[in-house]
Amino acid sequence: MKRLPIPEEERFAAASHSARVTSRIGLGLAITFTVCFLTGLVSHLIQHPPTWFFWPSRPIWLYRVTQGLHVVSGIASIPLLLAKLWSVYPKLFGRPLVRSVPHALERLSILVLSAATFFELTTGLFNVAQNYPWTFYFPQVHYAVAWVAIGSILVHVAVKLPVLRRALTREPAEAPVPPPAGLSRRGFLRTTWLTAGVSVVATAGATVPLLRNVSGLSWRTDHGTQGLPVNRTASAAGVRQAAQDSAWRLSVVTPAGARTFSLAELRALPQTTAELPIACVEGWSQSASWRGVAVPDLLRIVGAPPGSSIRVSSLERYGPYGVSVLPGEHTADALTLLALELNGEVLDLDHGFPCRVIAPNRPGVLQTKWVSKLEVL
Ligand SMILES: Nc1nc2c(c(=O)[nH]1)N[C@H]1C(S)=C(S)[C@@H](COP(=O)(O)O)O[C@H]1N2
Ligand SMILES: [Mo]
Description:
The chain crosses the membrane at residues 21-47, 67-87, 108-129, 141-159. By secondary structure, the chain is of the alpha+beta class. It is 44% helix and 14% strand.
């Protein structure tokens, strides 16, 4: 069969559209997407642990790093994806539209790939900006589409493997045509890497302490109340009154019975100080000094077995983060606190007064504020 000529494609002779450029950027994207997928998967598993899953309480900074990598790799992917689309868009004008069944499937898979990756990057970006211009529940949808994205990436890489190998290993033996005018291949690639790097440096200060003062576009450079950003205020959570009520008691329910503690009683217990980060899934993290009752001490006081898991309930009744579970790994860790103080002051109302959970190596969403009840499971 004679191959049809594709004159439209030949008109896009610029270096940035060469297979070498597409492959290089594609490889970069494959790396950033894989890092982003794996770190996102870890975060999902910690928040919805299946029975086989285990997440340690140490090192205290591990989740901060995996979540930071998630944000940084996602941000870097945005310019890379745009450059890749730029590099391949002439192919969209290839005619005939469909050459064969495999060709049709390939085009369809690329449509799915582009839609899924575009969706993941935009929803992720809106999420770190704490802007939710949609009605679906972000974590669930972002998670589900991540599988579509990584699956279509794998298919795409498998299909393109021969092209990839050719483009990445062999320099063209001779230049059959003079290099086209405009940006060279190397120039286009350099610009792409540079843009990705600048995007990261401009934003990652929200989670990388060293970049805090460099990241002009960071979504979280404020120092917040008591030196720490506030994610949800007491007013927004509807707990202002209940949290300041002198009748507030912490109830601790164990299989043997229930006990309550007033704030004064909690303050009279042995206190532990710990330097621990809040690492928010919304892309910021910050370390602070916390002081309060160590959870293993509290378990001992109420006579519960060490290493029991605990269900933590907040005064906040209707939000999605009003309840969390502290697994045994965490309740056995001497740095897991029911914090009463932050950076040397009584915990601010917006940071969870009268008391909140702060545990090492744990996503921010699970650091429940305005705690009212602990149930030993
Ligand atoms: N009850 C309750 N606790 C909560 C939240 C919430 O909305 N309600 N937000 C969580 C989230 S997403 C984060 S990142 C941390 C932020 O703590 P901070 O506001 O003290 O910085 O609190 C967590 N604890
Ligand atoms: Mo968060």
